Amino acid sequence: MPANLESMFYVRETPWHGLGVKVEEALSSEDALRLSGLDWKVTQRPIYTADFICASGNVYTNAEQIIPNYKANVRDIDGVVLGVVTDRYKIVQNEEAFAFTDALIKNDASNATLPISDKVVSRLERWREQQQEYKALQPNDYVDTGYICTKPNGELLLPNYVSQHFTLLLKRNNMPHIRFHDLRHSSASFLRSLGFDMKVIQTWLRHKDIQTTMNIYTHLDMEAKENVADILNSKLNLFEA
Questions:
Q1: Are 127 and 148 in contact (CB under 8 A)?
Q2: pLDDT at 145
Q3: Angle at alpha carbon of residue 136, lines to 134 and 138, rounded to 5°
Q4: Which of 152, 146, 148, 147 is nearest to 134 (CA)?
Q5: Residue ranges per domain, the chain?
Q6: Cβ(165)–Cβ(173) below 8 Å
Q7: Contacting residues for 10 by C-beta, under 8 A, at least 6 apart
Q8: Residue 47: burial class (beta carbons within 10 Å; 0-12, 13-18, 19+)
Q9: d(CA 229, CA 237)
Q10: ∠ at Cα 149 (148, 155), nearest 5°?
């Protein structure tokens, strides 16, 4: 069913189409919907046949005659008809459509403060200076988002930018292909090999529960053991007749 765009919201960076209400900060999906004016509900109402005038001028009235199998989706705050649908259409309210974001935003384990090394701080400071130079060169066009991962014009990087360039980096250096996200697993294995306990690794990786951390380490530990077995098999020919 075709649909007309009534309204939408976006966070900080204006989308390419320029539509929607800008929301600077939103603590929850409820806040985002309220700030963007989308905190309304859709109700369904029956559709009735209308009076009509024929060519002769006679008025024909079909009072209270409901059109079967069809309903009108109506916005509750102002009675605007958003569309006509069949009886099989199920309404998904705005708060339902965006509720999944709360699980991502409200995970206490994902909101953590972690220390960074002096080398990383130094590199970030140099990049900040570079951003200021870009800004000075583009006084009218630079988009000052305040973020670190930006393009030379200040716009935010697309979500897939890092993963795509990570793949190119691996190819350029003749390294085996892994997903960018797999570096978290590598980090868990590396930290474990340095002697850190699982609770510390859980905090560092921001896992909600320690079982997730344990599952990753168990998987990596089994892979390491299989690699050892393969090497021993090839070097010692243990299974040759």
A1: yes
A2: 83
A3: 70
A4: 152
A5: 9-106, 175-241
A6: no
A7: 20, 21, 22, 23
A8: middle
A9: 11
A10: 100
Helical packing angle, 182-193 and 210-236, nearest 10°: 80
Tokens (6 digits) for 197: 């306990």
Using only C-alpha atoms, the chain has a radius of gyration, in whole angstroms, of 29
Question: How far apart, in whole angstroms, are the C-alpha atoms of residue 201 and residue 221?
Answer: 15
Q: What is the pLDDT along the chain (241 residues), one digit of tens a residue?
A: 334 555 666 766 677 777 777 766 655 777 777 777 788 899 998 887 765 555 555 555 555 577 889 999 999 888 889 889 998 888 888 888 777 666 555 555 555 677 888 898 999 999 999 999 999 999 899 988 888 888 999 988 876 788 888 889 999 999 988 888 788 778 887 888 788 888 888 888 777 778 777 776 666 666 666 666 666 666 666 445 4
Amino acid identity at 222: M
Tokens 């029956």, residue located: 46
Residue 156's beta-bridge partner residues? 150
Distance of alpha carbon 187 from alpha carbon 54, whole angstroms: 78
Which residue has tokens 């705005």?
94
What is the rounded CA–CA span in Å between residue 201 and residue 207? 9
Residue 8 three-state SS? coil
Residue ranges in 49-153 assigned as alpha helix (H): 94-98, 100-105, 118-137
